[in-house]
């Protein structure tokens, strides 16, 4: 199975090119701010990626070929630098990962896509990997090393995690965690000293991808998840995706109005949680940028 | 003569049973499968027979005909739980039968959130979410494109990003000591839109 990709010589697991994507600079500044600080603290070397474009995922429903072309152009940019990609957004990471794998394994598709790439003077060679930050932290950095950086264990915190779909599924393309019983984010949270609570339908979708088509379904899906988290006594929800985060944080007041229910559940980017445990201040982790007031979490961290 | 009389009698007998009550109690249970009650006459033409072959050629939709209608996709679909009309199993059946217009012009094909739960759970290894994507791609070629995708596509063409990032955000990056936002290579993006044939589709749909 996939020997070709396994055999590839390993890139230096401490140097990456950052694929920022669109949703993070558009609305989720706190994720970028906290992620950069945390990655630096862990000793990872992060290069910028000039002239990158949208990963292609938003266009996949209307043109699969264009998605392939846009994704491949980004992969080629990283190949030129000969550095693996780290993406903060699971949508970007999942798309780049899937396209990278497909092109490495499927000669016919690679030829088709390279025909597009010729137009812009590029060629896909298949020499790098694309990873989501969660995978980099768990696999390349490792829990032990993260543990060494924890200065202020968050032992007073009880949180729920929401990994989101695109770091979990489909298994055949993504496959670094168990989509039926995801553990990686839970382990990453436990390292910070916080408790992770189990709740009903943990691995279910928040609905964000269709919010431009239908609002009712996503608001209800996220609302249901928030109810399940509340039932088990979670003090906050921890995410690793800008879109899921928009649903849990930015849209939470709307969900509360729609369902006529109060949640008041702070939603933190995982990197913010980790940063707080590393001893960064709430200001450095841009906690104030969150829509749902997280001051009770800050108080618990400081107590 | 005696025969019809007899029949009438039995009918009458049944009716005298506590029918009213039973009927009311049963009603919600019977009323559920509305789908079954709606009888649609399907006209299968040679064109409908060809549709599945056309669809199967699109990457991700190859295993369409392996679907044996078990309904696991619909049962496990988070969108289906909150939307009565979104039923992936039904959409796949319609696609297999080649009821092209009804599938491609239907609003429901745009409701898949691409969570890929159905793909992981399908016992036949059909990539249901990818079949849905293939159907949407086909719908676009028939001139159907929801406005949100025109906006996304035009933002990518104009900035390289799927959203037009407000000035305020770009300024704020400086304050937060973030590196400047890389500029997209618009020439490359435009060339890729063109070579994949997407520019034409976008123009045809009235987008930029």
What this model shows, in words?
- The complex is a heterodimer of chains A (303) and B (208).
- Chain A is an alpha/beta fold and 303 residues long.
- Chain A folds into two domains: 12-134, Glutathione S-transferase Yfyf (Class Pi), Chain A, domain 2 (Up-down Bundle), CATH 1.20.1050; 150-302, Rossmann fold, CATH 3.40.50.11810.
- Chain A is 47% helix and 10% strand.
- Chain A has 14 helices and eight strands.
- In chain A, the strands form two sheets. Chain A has a four-stranded parallel beta sheet, with helices on both faces.
- In chain A, helix 3 (29-41) packs across helix 13, helix 4 (64-81) crosses helix 5 and helix 10 (216-231) packs across helix 12 (252-259).
- Chain B is 61% helix and 0% strand.
- Chain B has 14 helices and no strands.
- Chain B has helices at 2-16, 19-31, 34-37, 46-56, 72-76, 78-82, 88-97, 100-104, 117-121, 128-141, 147-159, 167-175, 186-195, 198-204.
- In chain B, helix 7 packs across helix 10 (128-141) and helix 11 (147-159) crosses helix 13.
- The longest helix of chain B has 15 residues, at 2-16.
- Classes of the chains: A alpha/beta (303), B mainly alpha (208).
- Chains A and B meet through helix 2, helix 3, helix 4, helix 6 and helix 10 of A and helix 6, helix 9, helix 10, helix 11 and helix 12 of B.
Summarize the structure.
Helix content of chain A is 47%, strand content 10%.
Question: Helical proportion of chain A?
Answer: 40-55%
The percent of residues in helical segments of chain B reads: 55-70%
Kindly report the average pLDDT value of chain B.
86
Mean pLDDT of chain A: 95
The appropriate CATH architecture of the largest domain in chain A is 3-Layer(aba) Sandwich
Structural class per helix/strand content of chain A? alpha/beta
Unreliably modeled segments of chain B:
1-28
Task: Report low-confidence residues of chain A grouped into runs of 5 or more.
Answer: 1-8
The biggest chain-chain interface is:
A-B, 55 and 59 residues
- How can the largest sheet of chain A be summarized? 4 strands, parallel
Number of helices of chain B: 14
Order of strands across the widest beta sheet of chain A? 2-1-3-4
């Amino acid at each position: 199975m996939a020997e070709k990709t396994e055999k590839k010589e390993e890139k230096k697991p401490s140097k990456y090119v950052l694929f920022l994507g669109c949703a993070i600079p558009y609305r989720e500044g706190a994720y970028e701010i906290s992620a950069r600080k945390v990655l630096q603290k862990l000793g990872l070397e992060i290069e910028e990626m000039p002239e990158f474009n949208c990963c292609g995922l938003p266009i996949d429903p209307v043109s699969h070929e264009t998605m392939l072309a846009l994704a491949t152009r980004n992969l080629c940019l990283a190949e030129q630098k000969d550095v693996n990609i780290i993406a903060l957004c699971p949508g970007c990471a999942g798309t780049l990962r899937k396209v990278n794998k497909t092109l490495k394994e499927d000669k016919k598709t690679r030829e088709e896509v390279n025909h597009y790439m010729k137009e812009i003077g590029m060629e896909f060679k298949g020499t790098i990997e694309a990873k989501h930050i969660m995978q980099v932290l768990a696999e390349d950095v490792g829990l032990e090393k993260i543990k060494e950086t924890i200065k202020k264990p968050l032992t007073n915190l009880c949180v729920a995690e929401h990994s989101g779909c695109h770091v979990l599924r489909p298994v055949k393309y993504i496959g670094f965690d168990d989509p039926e019983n995801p553990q990686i984010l839970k382990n990453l949270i436990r390292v910070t000293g916080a408790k992770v609570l189990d709740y009903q339908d943990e691995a279910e979708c928040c609905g964000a991808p269709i919010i431009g088509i239908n609002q009712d379904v996503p608001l209800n899906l996220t609302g249901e998840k928030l109810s399940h988290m509340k039932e088990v006594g979670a003090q906050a929800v921890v995410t690793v995706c800008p879109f899921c985060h928009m649903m849990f944080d930015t849209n939470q007041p709307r969900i509360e109005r729609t369902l006529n229910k109060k949640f008041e559940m702070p939603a933190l980017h995982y990197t913010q949680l980790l940063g707080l445990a590393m001893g960064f201040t709430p200001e450095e982790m841009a906690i104030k940028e969150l829509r749902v007031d997280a001051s009770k979490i800050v108080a618990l961290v400081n107590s | 003569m005696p025969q019809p009389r007899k029949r009438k009698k039995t009918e009458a007998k049944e009716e005298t049973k506590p029918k009213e009550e039973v009927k009311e109690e049963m009603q919600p249970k019977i009323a559920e499968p509305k789908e079954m009650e709606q009888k649609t006459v399907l006209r299968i033409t040679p064109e409908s027979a060809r549709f599945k072959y056309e669809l199967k050629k699109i990457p991700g939709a190859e295993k369409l005909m392996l679907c044996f209608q078990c309904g696991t996709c619909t049962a496990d679909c988070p969108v289906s739980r909150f939307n009565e009309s979104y039923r992936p199993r039904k959409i796949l059946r319609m696609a297999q039968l080649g009821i092209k217009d009804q599938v491609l012009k239907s609003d429901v094909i745009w409701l898949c959130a691409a969570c890929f739960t159905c793909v992981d759970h399908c016992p036949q290894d059909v990539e249901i979410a990818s079949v849905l994507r293939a159907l949407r791609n086909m719908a676009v070629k028939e001139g159907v494109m929801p406005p949100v995708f025109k906006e996304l596509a035009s933002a990518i063409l104009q900035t390289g990003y799927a959203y037009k990032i407000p000035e305020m955000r770009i300024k704020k990056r400086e304050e937060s000591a973030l590196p400047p936002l890389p500029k997209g290579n618009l020439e490359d993006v435009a060339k890729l839109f063109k070579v994949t044939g997407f520019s034409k589709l976008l123009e045809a749909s009235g987008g930029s």
